[in-house]
Amino acid sequence: MTTLTLVNKKQLYISMEVTSAIIEKVEKWDETSFSTTSQVSGGGGYIYQGSGYISPVTFTTTTSSQTTRHTRIYYKSETKSDALTAYGFDLEVIE
Fold first, then answer.
1. ∠ CA 44-48-54 to the nearest 5 degrees?
2. Which residue of 43, 73, 85, 90 is most buried, as measured by CB atoms within 10 A?
């Protein structure tokens, strides 16, 4: 069994039962989330005896995105095959 514990935003603690293993495959993928906020204001005013003021309508749209990198390492030891998945981490595997 493999356990990953996030210590803080920059440190990851990995606990593995196996002491040595052969890495068979490494997968990396990105997950992107998007957020959009729209706001409409204005459009009011008055008209009195043929004159007045009309406020224009203002549209404001804010869009943001966040991309998170994940890594999954498939490994095989003498007794078992398993996978280690690190969500939110781009683990470097030296070949």
1. 25
2. 73
DSSP structure string for 22-86:
EEEEEEEEEEEEEEEEEEEEE--EEEETTEEEEPPEEEEEEEEEEEEEEEEEEEE-SS-EEEEEE
CB 26 within 8 A of CB 72: yes
pLDDT in tens, the chain (95 residues): 667 777 777 777 777 665 688 899 999 999 999 999 999 998 889 889 989 988 899 999 999 999 999 999 999 988 889 998 988 888 887 76
Instruction: Please give the Cα distance from 68 to 74 (Å, whole number).
Output: 20
Cα angle: 36, vertex 39, 41; to 5 degrees: 170
Cα distances from 44 to residues 3, 33, 47, 48, 58, in angstroms, run: 59, 36, 10, 14, 11
